[in-house]
Each structure stands twice: as C-alpha cells, then as structure tokens.
Amino acid sequence: MSWALSLSRGKARNRREKPASRSMVELGYTPQLRYREWQQADGQRELRLYALLRYEQHDFNCPVDRDYLSDALESLWQRIVPSTAVHLSKG
C-alpha cells in the first residue's frame, strides 16, 4: 500500500505575500514538482501539475492507523487556499 500527499499547483491560490510553495517548505516539506497525464472518457487528454510532498510505501499486511496523516493534512488545510488543492492518495 502506498500513500501520496500532494498539492495541486493549478488550484492553490494563496496570498501573494506567502505563496503555497513557501508554506509547504515552512511545514518541513521538500516539494517535488511532478505531472500526471491521462485520457478522459470523451478522449480529451488532461495534464495536472502538482507538488509531491510525501510518498510512503507500507506493507499490506500491517494495518496503518487511519489518523496517521491527520495532523499533516490539518496543517496544510489551514495554510493552503483553497483546502481542496491538498490531496491524499492511497494506492
């Protein structure tokens, strides 16, 4: 099982004096700029630019506490506008 915590660069609209990237660094992250490309059902290709904040892999046989990343998410939700720009993916 893997977890990815990321910030959608196209959605974040933080204040000009404190951009989202600076907020992430202040929280201790080292963002890695990535992109994801996919094809929609109607055939249109989509491209999303995002900053990968954290990626972890865990053993499927070991349960992970469901509140494991709740503090990290709360901190990001409080600083990133809109909070919907913050994503947690489980795969």
Key terms:
single chain; 91 residues; alpha+beta; Alpha-Beta Plaits; 2 helices; 4 strands
Summarize, please:
The protein is built from two helices and four strands; from the N terminus they run βαββαβ. It is α+β, with helices and mostly antiparallel strands and 91 residues long.
Could you characterize the architecture of this molecule?
This protein is of the alpha+beta class and 91 residues long. The protein has one domain (2-90): 2-Layer Sandwich (Alpha-Beta Plaits). The chain has 2 helices and 4 strands. A 4-stranded antiparallel β-sheet has the order 2-3-1-4, with helices on one face.
Oligomer kind:
single chain
In total, how many domains does the architecture comprise? Answer: 1
CATH T-level topology: Alpha-Beta Plaits
Assess the beta-strand content as a share of residues. Answer: 35-45%
Tell me the name of the CATH class: Alpha Beta
User: In which order are the strands of the major sheet placed?
Assistant: 2-3-1-4
> Overall pLDDT, averaged?
80
User: How many strand segments?
Assistant: 4
Total DSSP helices: 2
- Would you identify the regions where 5 or more consecutive residues have pLDDT less than 50? none
CATH architecture group name: 2-Layer Sandwich
**Any idea what the radius of gyration is?**
14 Å
Please trace the helix and strand order, writing H or E for each element. EHEEHE
- Which structural class is indicated by helix and strand composition? alpha+beta
Q: Which sheet architecture does the biggest sheet show?
A: 4 strands, antiparallel
Instruction: Characterize the overall form.
Output: globular
